[in-house]
Amino acid sequence: MAINPNFHAPEREHWNVPALAEGIRRGDRSALARGITLVESDLSTDQGAAAELLTKLQPEPSDQPSSFRLGITGNPGAGKSTLIEALGTHWSEAGHRVAVLAIDPSSSQHHGSILGDKTRMEMLGKATGAFIRPSPSAGALGGIHSQTSEVIQLFEAAGFSRIVIETVGVGQNETAIQGVVDFTLLVALPGAGDEVQGLKRGVMEAADLIWVNKADGAHKAAAEQAAGQLRQALGLFNRADDQHVEVLVGSALDQASLTPLWDALDRGLRWGWASDRTVERRRAQKRTHMTRRIQAGLWSEALDQGQSVLAELEEKVANGELSPTEGALEFLRHLSAKHR
Ligand SMILES: Nc1nc2c(ncn2[C@@H]2O[C@H](COP(=O)(O)OP(=O)(O)OP(=O)(O)O)[C@@H](O)[C@H]2O)c(=O)[nH]1
Ligand SMILES: [Mg+2]
After folding, report:
1. Which of 31, 131, 134, 292 is the least buried, fewest Cβ under 10 Å from its Cβ?
2. Is 86 helix (H, G, I), strand (E, B) or coil?
3. pLDDT by residue, tens only, the chain of 340 residues
4. Which atom of ligand 1 is closest in space to residue 217's alpha carbon?
5. Torsion angle of alpha carbons 70, 182, 228, 238, nearest 10°?
């Protein structure tokens, strides 16, 4: 059976927001699942209830944040989901409540990973009580759905303390993951030179830690070689925050090789809190998030109010009757005249 993750049945539900908020705070899984559906909804009729839910679940400014938001990115098939399965198990055994948002690369049409992921992640969910949520990435750059931050807020309201966002490192804006997490793990493959070249500078700069995966069997030497090249490449960047980015090598299928990775994530988590970097990042992320929502809102309002004028101007600009700048200014004048 084919699953179209972009298909949303029209939501006819009348949202009982107070009950939903209460359920989520209690950690009720079905309330959480419905809450996520609500905040991810594109329906204009859902926007009011979504905003109300988020307001109800907004943490007090005085609340001590206690979660770790980890982004895992990397090329298709690098082993992200396999690693998350192992990490989720590790964290659950250590007593943490783990939630995973796996952003489906549904638009990138590659080797039908959605079903495979779903089964694997389901096993993790069943075995450990982790909450696993696949999410469509349609319409968003970098595999980051515009509502990813809101979903994270719901996870935290429901008491999850370890939050993992899986996103495929393809597309134009693959560093968008940085905008929603505390720490980014890049999963690379032992393709030696090719692999390093294939990783765009942006992804390298966004990574807080790099893991060269699949260092097993015949790939072991190539993995070490790739790690060496990655370390060298990293040496060429000057990170704004002077952070030292470690490059580790191992195999998601070899438990023993994963311990240094778990330790490095733990160090990253503790360093983020101790140095205030996490607090600063989250402050900056919230500001940017608001700005983006304003931009999106203004744009959709502009379209509502001036679609036909815009179409006329686009035609004139395309024909060379107006320069793009003149066209833009003309459109803005039209909008502000309407607002007067
Ligand atoms: N040999 C080996 N295979 C691995 C390793 N990690 C993952 N795999 C295999 O690689 C394939 C892809 O793994 P996934 O975990 O689905 O990779 P992914 O990065 O989540 O893939 P997408 O979500 O499709 O981008 C699966 O067949 C895994 O079993 C590893 O360390 N060694
Ligand atoms: Mg995956």
Report:
1. 292
2. helix
3. 445 555 555 545 689 999 999 999 999 999 999 999 999 887 888 889 999 999 999 988 877 777 999 999 888 889 999 999 999 999 999 999 999 998 865 544 444 445 555 556 667 777 778 999 887 655 444 456 678 899 999 999 999 999 999 987 655 456 678 889 999 999 998 874 555 656 667 777 788 999 999 999 888 998 998 899 888 888 877 776 677 899 999 999 999 999 999 999 999 999 999 988 999 999 999 998 889 888 888 888 888 888 999 999 999 999 999 999 999 999 999 999 987 7
4. 1
5. 160
Q: Can you name the residues that pair with 73 across neighbouring β-strands?
A: 167, 186
Task: State if residue 137 touches ligand 1 by the CB under 6 angstroms criterion.
Answer: no
Place of tokens 């779903």: 118
Instruction: Look up residue 271 and give its two tokens.
Output: 């360093």
The residue whose CB lies within 8 Å of the most ligand 1 atoms, and thus the one to mutate among 72, 73, 75, 81, is 81
Domain residue ranges in the chain: 9-58, 60-275, 286-339
80 lines ligand 1 (CB under 6 A): yes
Q: Which residue CA neighbors atom 21 of ligand 1 most closely?
A: 77
Cβ of 74 below 6 Å from ligand 1: yes
Is domain 9-58 given the CATH code 1.20.5 in the classification? yes
